[in-house]
């Protein structure tokens, strides 16, 4: 087991050494890049901004001011256009990154639990307060059945009127009616 520990320590030390080497390389690359950008900036300024020589007369000064104002306006427009392009490119980049992310399938579906839920509860969850329909079909069926039997009984009672009259005729009939509370 001590042999294994030595191996692990060696691997860890190697990893640490590689990390520090990579960091040093990155730092030197950043320094080079910064220096190159500075040189590029100086070259650009030398090319686009020649040293200013102030003319002697008032009229020449006014002309220079007009030229400078015009230059400022055009540079401002350029800056604005560049900013808009940058925003557009940034947005496109974000969209592409999102597509990449989606394509890689980084989004893990959460494990779904099975939930026993009645149709009523489901509709209530989906529709919230708008849900008023009662989906308990058995209850509806029972209600319909009861109503039907009531109607059928009424129809039976009314349908056979001779039987009805015979039942209610005489003292026996009157007694039945009295007991039924009619």
TrEMBL record:
Gene Ontology biological process: cardiac muscle contraction; skeletal muscle contraction
Name assigned to this protein: Troponin I, fast skeletal muscle
Keywords: Acetylation, Actin-binding, Coiled coil, Muscle protein
Subunit structure: Binds to actin and tropomyosin.
Ranges in coiled-coil conformation: 58-106
Gene Ontology CC terms, in alphabetical order: troponin complex
GO molecular function, a single term: actin binding
Lineage of source species: Eukaryota, Metazoa, Chordata, Craniata, Vertebrata
Record's function text: Troponin I is the inhibitory subunit of troponin, the thin filament regulatory complex which confers calcium-sensitivity to striated muscle actomyosin ATPase activity.
Protein family membership: Belongs to the troponin I family.
């Amino acid at each position: 087991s001590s042999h294994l520990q030595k191996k692990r320590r060696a691997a860890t030390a190697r990893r640490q050494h590689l990390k520090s080497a990579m960091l040093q390389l990155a730092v030197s690359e950043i320094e080079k890049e910064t220096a190159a950008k500075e040189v590029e900036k100086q070259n650009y300024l030398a090319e686009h901004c020649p040293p200013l020589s102030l003319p002697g007369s008032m009229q020449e000064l006014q002309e220079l001011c007009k030229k400078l104002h015009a230059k400022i306006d055009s540079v401002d427009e350029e800056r604005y256009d560049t900013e808009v392009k940058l925003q557009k490119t940034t947005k496109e980049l974000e969209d592409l990154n999102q597509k990449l992310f989606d394509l890689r399938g980084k989004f893990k579906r959460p494990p779904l639990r099975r939930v026993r839920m009645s149709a009523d509860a489901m509709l209530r969850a989906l529709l919230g307060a708008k849900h008023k329909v009662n989906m308990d079909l058995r209850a509806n069926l029972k209600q319909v059945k009861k109503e039907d039997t009531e109607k059928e009984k009424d129809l039976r009672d009314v349908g056979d009127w001779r039987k009805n009259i015979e039942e209610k005729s005489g003292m026996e009939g009157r007694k039945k009616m009295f007991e039924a509370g009619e």
